[in-house]
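Ticket #4471: complex job returned nothing on first submit. Input attached below:
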Amino acid sequence: MSKNDKVSNSVIRRLPRYYRFLGEVLAEGISKISSRELADRMKITASQIRQDLNCFGGFGQQGYGYNVAELRSEIGEILGVNKDLPAVLIGAGNLGKALSVHLDYKKYGCRLCGIFDANEELVGTMLGGLPVRSMSELESFCESCRPVIAILCIPREEAPDVCERLTGLDIKAFWNFSHYDITLENIPGTVVENVHLGDSLMALCYKINNPGKKPETEESEQ
Amino acid sequence: MSKNDKVSNSVIRRLPRYYRFLGEVLAEGISKISSRELADRMKITASQIRQDLNCFGGFGQQGYGYNVAELRSEIGEILGVNKDLPAVLIGAGNLGKALSVHLDYKKYGCRLCGIFDANEELVGTMLGGLPVRSMSELESFCESCRPVIAILCIPREEAPDVCERLTGLDIKAFWNFSHYDITLENIPGTVVENVHLGDSLMALCYKINNPGKKPETEESEQ
DNA sequence: TAGATTGTTAATCGATTAACAATC
DNA sequence: TAGATTGTTAATCGATTAACAATC
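Support reply: We reran it on our side without changes. The output follows.
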């Protein structure tokens, strides 16, 4: 499973997409696929697929292609979809509520084990089978459940403090939906995904408002 | 406002982040900033900032730096935050609900004008001040409200059809949260932001599960 | 004026694509 | 065997960084 030591961020971001598309291909009952066929589906180049996969190993067979089920399972293994990483969700507001019930965490290799909110009125209510807990319980809960991931659905101003508190509780990964940018290059072994929904919407609006400046699209409407 | 004709995707994705950080700087009461100071805050290089900004124009003053309020307002103008693009949200499930009340659309240059769901039981209920409408009303509603953006919070299997239906109703932009990948290089002038929350979570898990293969971090924990 | 910092060009770096020998 | 398609190296392309002259 290990070949090259450095895997670029661009490759990492494409792995889940490969996993997703291979799942679709598999669901269609196709058992064998070439890099060209997969590339056509995904609107990327066959070269890129082969180059990407070879960061991890030779999963294909020359002259034949790739076994869909096998390749998907290999990529799943690399991503760790069979793991069971415990996660806590902080902030049971609108977005927190949605994320606690909308996502099938098991599919991604994690498990939601605790939900917390600073608002005492929410404490005790149930969300996706879990009770919302008080922030004062965070320390004791983490000591017994030992979560690895924290999902932050809290306001910007609370993020720095909560983040530091969680780092002290051995949280290794932040899935951050607060409007605050977590940059942790100081804490070794800790990883972050900042998901800025507002940034994404703004990027979309930029493309609407600046049709002439659209990148990498051959055909423009004027 | 126009200088270079082609603006790369990388630059576009950074614009909202500049806008965000400049907002923070402004809130701190700082009126003047150099590319170096801003770069330090954002953990990027000063070169990149100057290079990025010069896609749009010379907003700074040599020997002095940038006027924070002015630069922020210029970038806001480029992003179109003062626009009022009408948007419809399709799918009032958990995520749809969260997106209809959690985001301050006005801040990003849009306005939510309609919410739709295929489930007739939800029709008529209120969400963030708007009634959930039946999918059968979609055509008549779009003809009067003329939405530009569609926010898709629907299941994967419904996405292709809904997407085609909306394209026929002159929707120019898709903010897509369904697990389906929209690729519209055929329809000129239409733009897409595919937000795959699952992919983001998987990328985070990859980084947890493969600490040795982490990219672009000088210090690894072993 | 001298110092600071931009705008912009040139150099470097990394990622994508093309090519092709290896091989099933 | 011949045809197909991989794994991998080399060429190209684009994005980031460095350098510096222009100038406030």
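The beta strands of chain B are 32-33, 66-67, 85-90, 110-117, 126-127, 130-134, 149-152, 173-176, 191-194. Closing as resolved unless it happens again.
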